[in-house]
Amino acid sequence: MEVRAFLWRGDHLLLLDQRRLPEEEVWLELRDHLQVAEAIKGMAVRGAPAIGCVAAYGYLLGVRSGQDPKEVRRVLERTRPTAYNLFYALDRMEKALLEGRDLEEEARSIEREDYEANVRMGEFGNTLVPQKAKILTHCNTGALATAGWGTALGVVRTAKRSGKEIHVWVDETRPYLQGARLTAWELLKEGIPHTLITDSTAGFLMRRGEVDLILVGADRITARGDVANKIGTYSLSVLAKVHGVPFYVVAPSSTFDLSIRSGEEIPIEERSEEELKTCGGKRIAPEGTPAYHIAFDVTPAENITAIITEKGIISPVTEENVRKCLS
Ligand code: MRU
Question: Which of 164, 170, 230, 271 has the greatest count of CB atoms below 10 A from its CB?
Answer without folding.
Answer: 230
